[in-house]
Specification:
By secondary structure, this protein is of the alpha/beta class. It has five domains: about 35 residues, no CATH class; about 60 residues; about 170 residues, Ribonuclease H-like superfamily/Ribonuclease H (Nucleotidyltransferase, domain 5, 2-Layer Sandwich); about 60 residues, no CATH class; about 80 residues, no CATH class. It has 19 helices and 15 strands. The strands form four sheets. Strands 1, 2, 3, 4, 7 and 8 form a six-stranded mixed beta sheet that branches. Strand 5 and strand 6 form a beta hairpin. The relative contact order is 0.06. The model has no long low-confidence stretch (mean pLDDT about 85).
Length: about 500
């Protein structure tokens, strides 16, 4: 018996049991013996408890559910269970198979639905590794994707993504499927009801689509785009992109989406994604005449240095608005400041922290009253200001002191008439001629402004038809002589 057990890799007790029986140990006999095994009374006592915990897990987040060992530990701690952990693992495995959710295959109508989700990926931006956030949206019928990269998932990026996506798709579907993300939902109510963000409601009203929200922890309800996020990360962004700007990333992603659509067939159909998308365009709502203003609106107050603070950064506005309340429109790429129903300032948005973005033009009226401050003014030190301005200011100051500063500021004000580029040319010309007087530069500017307009002959093919038939007759000087009685002077 010992040798048989060793050769077959089974216990001696098993060998002994089968040698005492009259029948050979066939497969059917073994199945009958082991298949009739019943749970002990101790195990039967906790079976309803295990079933209840597993059913409750069906409504929980997939990454936060009971494991078999956690069930065993709870049974021991809360119900004084005396059985083994291995037995509980077998029971849980069988019970989970019975509780698996059944899914129904769906076939969406053209133009009816889109699904949205955020994703994350890493790129090398200007040589440094950076995390980007992927705005992923997919038409459910044609499976056409649109992906755009942002530096964050804030509300302005969320809104901007839809404006660009609908323009790319060529229209708007009837409804969209969303998670319960904070940029769209203020509060989750009973069932599928949600208290939505005002800006998101405005987006829906502008493009005439309806938002439907998934149940909590039920990403499978928008399975199309859930799979898209991972697919994009693995196929479009491996290996890591090396880029100099975010626009370079987005150009690449847009091109990738179109190439994927051209080569990928829609499941269970003979058409490619691109071909079915062309058909779906006809079923989409047309785009409105004007795109939605994808921004976050915040109220600000202009401080004594003519700056408004937005997310730790400060942006300048004209000094005449000091102390006033204004509105700031925060877009993904720019900040627009509005007061009294007019735009008073526009800046490129900074994603650094505690930066000051100042425009020299906003301070010129104040500098006329405090001309000595021009040399050290923060806006005057900006790299956007050509070096010739600083050199010319120093020369005027050397020659005329504070009066020179005031005259230089008056020269700066002229850029509102002729533009910064022309003013730069004039100052470079004056510097080259060693002319450092306000009057001389002002005269050069007036000459530039008052240059006579040269009338050029239009070629015949560009001349309006009605002008071709118009003839100007020459004056007859003899007629003038007759009127004056022959006296011509």
């Amino acid at each position: 018996q010992r040798q048989i057990a060793k050769k077959l890799g089974i216990s001696r007790n098993t060998v002994s049991k089968y040698t005492k029986q009259q029948e050979a140990p066939t497969t059917i006999l073994r199945q009958n013996v082991y298949g009739k095994k019943e749970y002990s009374d101790e195990t039967k006592r906790v079976l309803p408890i295990i079933d209840q915990w597993l059913e409750d897990d069906l409504t929980s987040w997939g990454k936060q559910k009971h494991t078999a060992i956690r069930i065993y530990n709870r049974l021991v701690d809360e119900y004084d269970f005396k059985g083994s952990a291995s037995n509980i693992r077998k029971i849980v495995a069988k019970r989970k198979k019975k509780l698996q959710e059944v899914f129904i295959p769906l076939d969406f109508q053209l133009g009816h639905q889109f699904q949205f989700d955020w994703g994350e990926a890493d790129i090398f931006h200007q040589g440094r590794k950076q995390r980007i956030y992927l705005f992923c949206i997919q038409l459910s019928a044609s499976r056409m994707r649109f992906v755009r990269a942002y530096l964050h998932e804030k509300q302005e990026a969320f809104l901007d993504g839809f404006v660009r996506a609908f323009e790319f798709f060529g229209g708007v579907p009837i409804e969209g499927i969303f998670d319960n993300l904070k940029t769209a939902v203020v509060k989750t109510l009973q069932g599928r009801d949600r208290l939505e963000q005002e800006s998101f409601l405005a987006l829906q009203a502008h493009y005439l689509f309806k938002a439907e929200f998934c149940n909590p922890a039920s990403g499978n309800e928008k399975g199309r785009v859930e799979g898209t996020v991972g697919y994009i990360r693995r196929n479009a962004l491996v290996p890591h992109l090396e880029v100099q700007s975010l626009e370079e990333v987005n150009d690449y992603l847009l091109d990738w989406c179109l190439k994927e659509a051209e080569r990928t067939k829609v499941p269970h159909k003979e058409e490619t994604v691109l071909q079915l998308w062309e058909k779906e365009k006809e079923a989409l709502y047309p785009l409105p005449d004007n795109p939605f203003e994808a921004c976050k609106l915040v109220s600000c107050k202009v401080n004594k240095t003519s700056l408004v603070t937005i997310e730790t950064n400060q942006y300048s506005v004209p000094s005449s608005f000091v102390g006033q309340a204004v509105w700031a429109k925060i877009f993904v790429d720019r900040v627009i400041v509005v007061a009294q129903n007019q735009v008073i300032a526009e800046h490129i948005r900074s994603y650094d922290r505690y930066q000051m973005i100042a425009v020299l033009d906003h301070y010129l009226e104040a500098l006329l009253k405090k001309p000595r401050a021009i040399r050290d003014a923060h806006a005057f030190q900006s790299p956007d200001i050509p070096d010739v301005f600083r050199r010319y200011q120093r020369k005027l100051r050397e020659q005329e002191g504070a009066a020179g500063d005031r005259k230089f500021i008056r020269l700066l004000l002229l850029h509102r008439e002729i533009g910064m580029e022309k003013l730069t040319e004039v100052l470079l010309e004056a510097e080259k001629a060693h002319v450092f007087r306000y009057e001389a530069v002002h005269e050069m500017i007036q000459t530039l402004i008052n240059q006579p307009f040269l009338i050029q002959d239009l070629p015949k093919e560009k001349t309006p038809i009605n002008l071709l038939d118009y003839k100007v007759s020459k004056s007859n000087i003899e007629q003038y002589g007759q009127l004056t009685g022959g006296r011509m002077k």
